[in-house]
Amino acid sequence: GYLKCDVGIIGKGDTVKVPPKSEKDPDDIEANLLLPDGVPIERQRAKFIVKVYRADGLPRMNSSIMANVKRAFTGEAKDLVNPYVQVSFAGLTGKTNVKKASYNPVWNEQLVFTEMFPPLCQRIKIQLRDADPMKPAIIGTHYIDLKQISNDGEKGFLPTYGPSFVHLYGSTRDYNLLDQHSNLNTGLGEGVSYRARLLIAIRTEITDNVELFADKNVEVEPTLPICESSYCKTDGFFLFATVLEASMLDKKICDRSVYFELSMGNAGNSLDGHNESATNNMDDDEDPVSIDTTAYNSTTSACKPITHDKNHFYLPYWDYKPCMDVRAWFPDLRRRMYNSNMIAKITERMEVGLAETNLLLEEEDPTAEVKLRGVLEEVASSCNKYVTITKGALVGPGTGKTKLDKERIKLCQREVESIGNMSRNLRALVTKSSMKERYKTAQNYLAKLKFLIEDPQHALPDVFVWMIANGKRVAYHRLDARDLIYSTIEEETGIFCGKVQTVFLKLPGKQADGPAGWHVRAKLSLYLWLGTLKHKKFFYSGLPRGYEMLHELKNAEKGNVPAPTTVHYVEKYVFQLRAHIYQARSLIGSDASGLSDPYATVYITEYSKTTQVIEETLSPTWDELMVFDEITIYGSKEEIKRDPPTIVIDVYDQDKVGKSDFIGRAIAKPRIKLKENHYNTPVLEWFEITRGLDGAGELLAAFEMLEHGSDDVPRLSDPKYIAHGEYRGGAMDTSSLQPAMAILPVPQEVRPNLARFRIEVLFWGLRDLKRVHFMTVDKPRIDIECSGKIMNSSIIQNAKKNPNFANMLKFFDLDLPIEERYAPPITIRAVDCRSFGRYTLVGTHQITSIHKYMHRPPPKEDPKRFNQDGQLVLARRRGSAGNLISPAADTAGGGAISASWSGENLTLYGAAYVGKALHAKGKKAKKRPESQDATFDAQGGGDDDDDESSKDWWTKYFLSYEKLIESTKNSASSRLHEQQQQQRNQQTHHHGGANDTAENGRKLGVKTSKLVSKLSPKSTPAKSWPANSRVATCKIYPNELESVYEYNDFKEWLLAFPLYRGKKTGDSTEDETRIVGYFKGAIKVYKLPIEKGMEPAFAPTLPLNDPIHVLVRVYIVKATDLHPMDLNGKADPYVVLQLGSKRTSDKDNYVSKQLNPVFGKCFEIEATFPQDSMLTVQIFDWDLVGSDDLIGETKIDLENRFYSKHRAMCGISTHYEE
Mean pLDDT over residues 384-394, rounded? Predict the structure, then answer.
């Protein structure tokens, strides 16, 4: 882009003088362009030609009063709109001529934009406008993304589009002077109504002639009209809908009669649809659009909502379910939709599979890799299927014939085929250690597929369902036509075609943003089908069975037989619904305190019931069984069992004044028990609660529907009584004493089994606390809450001096469910204790899954013991004193350690040993001397030709560096090498008889070697090293030690929990700014009484968290690929270290003109933990004039490394030179 600005420097208190803006200043935009990365500086000129042919179906844009006045004077009727098209692209705007008074204007003009190619502008904006002299208005806007209509690959194509119809959406079509939704017409928000369609085409020509176009401009030229029928045939489409249930209606509209309207384009729009053009200039025989509107019925008959409890309103659609249908003529371009549907289905399945894999990954479940393999296998096979189907359907009815259609189908085939092959190859590479990378790669494939779904050229207009009350449009739902389109091939059919779906109607436009949009205006159970007239016989194939075969259904395949207006259900069954509402967790806090007073309302068909209110909590336990006795369901038994009615659970926060705040909504399907089936006890499960697009918590509940007349059903449990004050009744009048309220608790066999648990917490300290309300946090404390019980830590007296807690270990006992999946969340809250007994909430952290923090006894038989994070803990195998499998197997060192150490817990906290704690660090890559696995010579012996004395540190270092580069090259064939490596390690073990003296180095048990070969960065085959590789090389990691898999971020016993403040937005960058500090500590949960043989949750040898003085040595070896800072494309780097308040600068020894400087320096700093625990290594660029620039920095948490158990082992060589 281009930015022009004026900079002035003024003294304090001076007024700002705005410089005079003169038009005479030349703008040399081309010479001063800001170009994004990857765009060549020398770009070619190109012409972007946008052809505008015609439009039809425009709404009227002028009030009819004016028109009637005109008619009285002039005696002629006019169309109430003066349309023209405005196209904006890359800062240029072009307009077609205005066609006076026409609902279907024909322009046949082209706008030629002269721009550079590739353009810096992402999209072309096309607006249909009304040229009203009094009030110019926008009829509709559409954006065309250049990325979607071109492709920059080697088989790519220049931007091309159409000729194809663009469907424009915006506000409702009825004209009023103050259109409250007018901003919908500018392309903001989701359009709530069809406005018009516009036939356009785009093409690009790259020109070599530079002189012709000195300036950028837009020219309007006439163009030849096209023959539309050569691009596609017009076909009749039939859209059918049945409303099986309408409930949860908005209270405000319930005193009027209500009906629904189904529309597609202007067809079916009964209120403000088709405007007949006064001067019909088209030939009548060519115009099949004007079909008789009485031939179909696009609305339901109006009726008044009724209610059982003055709270929940519904429409009485009992045995007669009303139907709506629409017939319309559109260009037949079904294949565009079919193609999108096939890709969308592959993507959908892949996304679900990857989400499940991710859950397993988080729980560290070993079946994650099996799942991921399965997902990739399925993607590969469905991609192949896609290619076969599309290859067979390149011609035939419904195919688009534009250039973009042809290029796009080729592109989709190429991409999908390659993703299928890549998935198959990736499947073979999934191993336990590489899971995370493979999962990320699969996510990339998913993103590629997602990009292919949407077709930039529209096929059919979207479908709208409107609820109309008192003659006004109230609420709507918009459906993509491609989700409803029917095809004889299953893969191509839309996902909602011939299916019953639950739809929530919402308010149009701005009204739906924010809290008003969270409430449902109506809940519909809708059956929809859309297809061409020749497929009409299938329109009722998916309707739930149990209806009477009417004449209209029997003769469905005849095109001229109308669709039924109602479907009469003769089969019906009565059920009793038992809703077991047990508890919710992680709700959104809606009061000022960050807590809520939640209650839940359950809606099913026409009934609703409400639970009691539980005050001041985000994880309420309602423990209620609600019984709905008479629920009638229409349809056959198999249908009901296959697709039971939807249950909606709304959770509200009760406010003492005003109306309740909406927290979120969960949707559930009940378990159906018919007379003939056996009764099974229902199982509680978690349902997700959502509000708008965000998650708002989870609900633990179970729903079962029992058919009346079943005899093997357990009877209801005895009610328990609660004071009526808690219950959200009608009038909260406590002066007149009301009787106590009876509620049924959830029966014993359904509720989770509780047991006594102990939660033990290690309070270590708080770090990086930000200010709250502009005040520093001086005396913080931490509260831990779980299922209503709260434990407070001791108060830190002065957070500046020592941010660690005085009392480290505390515990509390409570009843928790034995099954982990029912466990309530643990909330960590940081509170600042101010003077005069005031408390301020600093931040909170929610632990939703307790699973990670469970403390279990060690398994009996397995010599390798895992602690709670699944890492190995030092454990001795009694008897074999030499062979100890230890964290050494975790590091890439891999040797066994002699077991003369006692005190197994010592290495859990590395503070007991002082190993090589500090690490030579580079800028991008942090490097550190460490052993390279299995580089010692298998045959023993090996003559050394080199002079021993030449092997100084740098020689070894560069040898190691070469190895790192080698190993990255070889990782492509990693699988093969892993197997070779395993065999080789086993040979090493067997052949090593002669050299058994080096016990520590050699005792590589087969088990460890496998572990090593999995965990170590892919080692290279032995062949590539000469026999003299006796050099004790270092292990160089290509990334931070924290991100090395086996070191697990050095958080094996001390975790950092980020504390968040404010409401969750879901935007990752914003959520970063919500972090107000970190709580360092650990949480262990275990069952009481304590089992035998269980180690204490926190070892008695815990290091103290008192301030501790340490000496830090930092070895700076070198930096690579620094960012150039000077005009010569180089930099003059030097190192600065910061630790707490100490700053060490090595400015005098800067390296001149070098982007890969070798520093080779050691720095010593004395520090005190916990105040100075974050070491910052910065690299600055030395400048002769002015201040030095920061090239980059990296931060290392020394405290985590100091207290880590890996510290004792990190960097110990497996062998040394003689």
Answer: 89
The number of residues in the chain equals 1218
Same domain, 582 and 519: no
DSSP conformation letters of 816-873: EESSGGGPPPEEEEEEEE-GGG-EEEEEEEEE--GGGGB--PPPSS-SSEE-TTS-EE
What pLDDT is recorded for position 903? 37
In a domain, residue 93? The reply is yes
Contact between 259 and 270 (Cβ < 8 Å): no
* Contacting residues for 738 by C-beta, under 8 A, at least 6 apart: 724, 729
Structure tokens at 423: 């998935």
Phi first, then psi: what are they for 169, rounded to 5°? Answer: -125, 155
Q: Dmax of the chain from CA atoms?
A: 117
CA torsion sign for 424, 430, 435, 437 is negative
* 667 and 771, same domain (yes or no): no
The domain tally of the chain equals 6
53/202 same-domain check: yes
Same domain, 426 and 515: no
Quick one: angle between helices 403-429 and 368-392, nearest 10? 150
First to last CA, the chain: 64
Q: Domain check: are 1064 and 1123 in the same one?
A: no
Contacts of 874 (CB under 8 A, 6+ apart): 884, 886, 887, 904, 907, 908
Residue 58 shares a structural domain with residue 206 = yes
Report residue 702 as tokens: 């179970």
pLDDT mean over 793-814: 90
Let me know: does 932 contact 1025? Beta carbons within 8 Å: no
Report the CATH number that the domain containing residue 92 is assigned in CATH: 2.60.40.150
Say whether pLDDT at 201 is over 70: yes
Q: Copy the structure tokens of residue 718.
A: 């005895």
**Locus of tokens 């019953």:** 500
Other beta carbons within 10 angstroms of residue 1022's beta carbon come to: 17
Name the phi and psi angles at 1183, rounded to 5.
-125, 140
Examine the domain organization and report whether 84 and 208 are in the same domain: yes
- Measured CA to CA, the distance from residue 524 to residue 501 in angstroms comes to 8
| 582 lies in some domain | yes
* 650-686 residue pLDDT tens: 999 988 777 888 899 999 999 999 999 899 999 999 9
Q: How far apart are CA 522 and CA 1151, in angstroms?
A: 71
Nearest alpha-carbon partner for 321 in 669, 538, 634: 634
Cα–Cα distance for residue pair 928/917, rounded to 1 Å: 10
Bigger pLDDT: 993 vs 262: 262
Contact 621, 614 (CB under 8 A): yes
The pair of three-digit structure tokens given for residue 685, joined into one six-digit string: 């499960």
Average predicted confidence (pLDDT) for the chain: 79
- In this structure, the answer to whether residues 429 and 502 fall within a common structural domain is no
Looking at the predicted structure, is the pLDDT value of residue 788 above 50? yes
Residue 1040, pLDDT > 50, answer: yes
Structure tokens at 67: 């028109």
In a domain, 145, yes or no: yes
By DSSP bridging, strand 320-331 and strand 566-568 are antiparallel
Sign of the C-alpha dihedral, residues 255, 259, 264, 270? negative
Mean pLDDT across the stretch 425-450? 91
Please tell me whether the overall predicted TM-score, pTM, comes out greater than 0.85 for this model.
no
Residue 319 has φ and ψ, to the nearest 5°, of -85, -20
Cβ 975 vs Cβ 429: under 8 Å = yes
Q: What is the DSSP letter of 125?
A: E
Among 373, 334, 341, which residue's Cα sits nearest to residue 357?
373
Q: Is residue 171 part of a domain?
A: yes
Q: Is there a cis peptide before residue 1089, judged by omega within 30 degrees of 0?
A: yes
Distance CA 1169, CA 1107 (A): 5
Domain containing residue 1169: 1107-1203
Question: What pLDDT score does 27 carry?
Answer: 67
Confidence category of residue 166, pLDDT binned at 50, 70, 90:
very high
End residue of a domain, out of 520, 539, 558: 539
For position 294, what pLDDT does the model report? 53
